[in-house]
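User: Teach me something about this protein's shape.
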Amino acid sequence: MSFELIDYSTDYYEGTAGEPVPEIRGGKFVQLRDVCNDREFIILSPVKLSTYHADIVERFCGLNKLPGVWNPGRTNFRIQDPCWSVVGGGRWAIDTVKKTLDLDSSSQAYGRFDSAGLKKRLLSLREMRRYAVRIDGA
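Assistant: First, the predicted structure itself:
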């Protein structure tokens, strides 16, 4: 399975806020899977860019031309492609000086992320090899 970590911090800080990306930051994240192509994604987003986990899913779908729809209460954005699923979500915090990444909590819209083997997959990424990854409950 291919695995990718996407961080929307640059989009928000440099693009929207017009400021440098802070060394210490956090927000919400979602875990997505594409079973047809055997891919998994962890997508980090600052809360000021994505107030809700569903906002992250909507942004990812828009950027990747995946069909999706909001539920009537706009609390859940559902991907309308049977290959894709939102596994769950939570909160994240990163310190690029101390080289730490923390993942915890859960999403009201999608539930808790799947932590099984997640730390190993994160540490397999070149950009995360020197990081201490801590996953609450794993």
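Now, about its shape. The chain has a mean pLDDT of 97. The longest strand covers residues 84-95. If you'd like, I can walk through any region in more detail.
User: That's plenty for now, thanks!
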